[in-house]
Design brief:
Elements (H helix, E strand, L loop, with lengths): L1 H45 L6 H9 L2 H17 L4 H36 L6 H23 L5 H17 L1 H16 L7 E4 L4 E7 L3 E5 L5 E5 H5 L3 E3 L7 E9 L5 H18 L10 E7 L4 E9 L4 H20 L18
Antiparallel strand pairs: 1-2, 1-5, 2-3, 3-4, 6-8, 7-8
Length: about 350
């Protein structure tokens, strides 16, 4: 009789374990199907919608759907096991905390994704600092909700944070000044991501990002220059992208005193027009012109005014213009003189 009863109890435990294992396996399979097929299909359909928010929601769910289904399976399996009330309570709270952590990660991804989405639409000139702030805010709210769900009062925590905030602010003056300087730079929209700028210290390059601490500039030599936001906000900055991206290109030229200046002007303008129309980066609609300005020691000097689409285009425009102008001057017989200086030697007086 005792052996038969023990077999029944053992069979009952085996059935419970099999049921719990079935919950785990089923939840894992459902999670994989959700990740591999459902989300993949929704992602394909989202490409045909005009609103970009659905792509952000789907990408934020990737990886989290499987773990959510797995947590649901673990919770269902625990309900099938003969655990006492205390163990059930601890397991339930642990699963709740893990689920809230998944929700927190989802909200961090979602908030950062929407910030990045609207930044690309030029609502915000630099996404990095705002995406980081969005993630930190979502994370802080999630932690407070987790603590509240565990029965821990968050009022003393908020009070301690308020009191300790003053000490933190005093200890992190440089960091906070960089954060607020970065927000001020972004708010004024005078320096934007993608702009080519030059500082009064000589640093120049394309602005790649404005973070919570530094502004990152990629120089033409493909080096990265990190400038603290507080230094940038107090510097004299030349922005070559404002008010327009195209800019004037000045080329200095000198011709011989014996040259026909009317012919020089005509030939030079023709070469300049040809260069702007044929060279990549030149503004084809711009009418170039010259301005004489100096009677130099050995030449009459003038400035040729061209126009290119953006800062880096000026190098190729100048390069091709100088080559073509030199060849055309040689064909037209226009002399570009060497520097000449006549020295008179005074003889000995007798």
């Amino acid at each position: 009789m005792w052996i038969k009863l023990q077999e029944i109890v053992t069979l009952f435990n085996v059935n419970m374990l099999l049921t719990a294992g079935g919950f785990l396996i089923a939840s894992a399979v459902i999670g994989l199907l959700m990740e591999r097929f459902v989300l993949h299909r929704l992602e394909s359909l989202a490409k045909y919608t005009t609103w970009g928010g659905d792509n952000i929601v789907i990408s934020s769910l990737k990886g989290l759907t499987f773990y959510s289904c797995l947590l649901a399976g673990i919770y269902g399996a625990l309900l099938r096991l003969p655990l006492d009330e205390r163990a059930q309570g601890i397991a339930g709270k642990l699963i709740l905390v893990l689920f809230l952590m998944l929700v927190t990660v989802f909200m961090m991804r979602l908030s950062a994704g929407f910030v990045l989405h609207y930044a690309r639409k030029a609502v915000l000139p630099s996404p990095s600092i705002f995406t980081n702030l969005a993630k930190v805010t979502a994370f802080a709210i999630g932690i407070l909700i987790i603590l509240q769900s565990l029965g821990i009062s968050i009022t003393p925590i908020l009070t301690a944070l308020g009191v300790g905030g003053l000490a933190v602010a005093l200890a992190m003056q440089d960091t906070l000044s960089n954060i607020f300087a970065g927000l001020q730079i972004i708010a004024t929209r005078q320096i934007r991501q993608g702009d080519y700028i030059r500082l009064d210290g000589g640093e120049e390059g394309y602005v790649t990002d404005i973070t919570w601490r530094n502004t990152m500039i990629r120089a033409l030599a493909n080096n990265m220059v990190l400038i603290p936001n507080s230094k940038l906000s107090g510097a004299i900055v030349t922005n070559f992208q404002l008010p327009d991206t195209d800019m004037g290109v000045l080329v200095q030229v000198g011709v011989s005193y014996s040259s026909d200046l009317e012919k020089v002007e005509q030939v030079t303008v023709e070469v300049a027009q040809e260069s702007l129309k044929e060279v990549q980066g030149g503004v084809k609609s711009f009418e170039p012109f010259i301005r004489y300005h100096t009677f130099a020691d050995s030449s009459i000097n003038f400035t040729v005014i061209l126009r290119c689409r953006e800062y880096v285009d000026q190098y190729l425009v100048k390069h091709e213009f100088v080559k073509r102008l030199h060849s055309r001057y040689r064909d037209e017989g226009i002399e570009i003189p060497f520097p000449i200086r006549t020295v008179y030697l005074k003889g000995d007086e007798r």
